[in-house]
């Protein structure tokens, strides 16, 4: 059995791994990243005719965004959870609307991918090829996200996709206890291999206290959020901590995602809290409501999470220059984005104009990834003979952890540094 890293090797994003065995070609994710001009960057090419199965861990575009390009003429069975497929369908439509000129697929290929989908239920094994079985388990990252245990031709492979072992308001932590202790190989993300996230309870208290202070001072709080995962977690956190006495508006693609996730209450940690949050929050369907949202102290949750576009920019231009208001960023801010610019310089260039931030500006680490401590504990769960492969990580941040673990006797960790690398079992 060979494993080729088509993307996500030596980088965060565009994850794609090809498992090649005697009778099977199994693709694990096929995501895209975006360059400085917001053009999609794809993993290395794989011939669809060489694939017997594809597994999709979750709907974020850095794991899913390239998949429709493989469904131009071949219909490879696509295994994923029903919620991931429904969310992916929405994310593809949005990507085509925003970046369609640069994408090698249209809605026709998206429909082909969707029609090739075979649903997975957590904990239930499914045959995926010749002498191959996949079992999905909750990954704790976003709703519908799944880790995979793949048994193929006498080998056992664990693939995490993105995972989080800590409970959040939306999801239970990853179901790591159902994973085998002695697989042949574990392919795992290590995005935050050098960073520990703050304790969740303390983070929520600081965040909601800051929100309340702005509201009680007569201001509004803009919370630019990733549409899928972060927006829902922020909404639940606000409602859980009693901030719902003020209007909470939800704008952009997060509105549709809220409704889709609400149809899968069995996947949520607290379905009652989620139902309450949907009932309390106010959807923004048009410009009229959007303008009205800023006429009184309120909380506004909207994409884009890095202020690169979407309704968030509309609100930002209106709210940023008033000291009464708050701009609270609960997401990672990539370099060369307006979100990163305002955190580092206090202003952002939006639509050619410089907007200086006079509003209260804060960043909160609401990550949905495992932090350094969780990654280390996860690695140590497996037997010494299990090969551990770290992907979806910058080698400069993960190499120190690899060195530390090697000193402790864990010399079974491999860190691919460039797409195209291949290992054999």
Spans of at least 5 consecutive residues with low confidence: none
Q: Tell me about the biggest sheet? A: 7 strands, mixed
Q: Mind telling me which CATH architecture of the largest domain this is?
A: 4-Layer Sandwich
Strand coverage percent: 15-25%
Rg of Cα set: 21 Å
The CATH topology label of the largest domain is: Metallo-beta-lactamase, Chain A
State the CATH class of the largest domain: Alpha Beta
The total count of strands amounts to: 24
Shape: globular
Oligomer: single chain
Total helices: the number is 12
The strand order across the widest sheet is 8-7-6-3-2-1-24
What structural category do the secondary elements indicate?
alpha/beta
Query: How many domains, in number, for the residues?
Result: 2
Q: In whole angstroms, how far apart are the ends?
A: 5 Å
Question: What would CATH call the homologous superfamily of the largest domain?
Answer: Ribonuclease Z/Hydroxyacylglutathione hydrolase-like
Share in helix: 25-40%
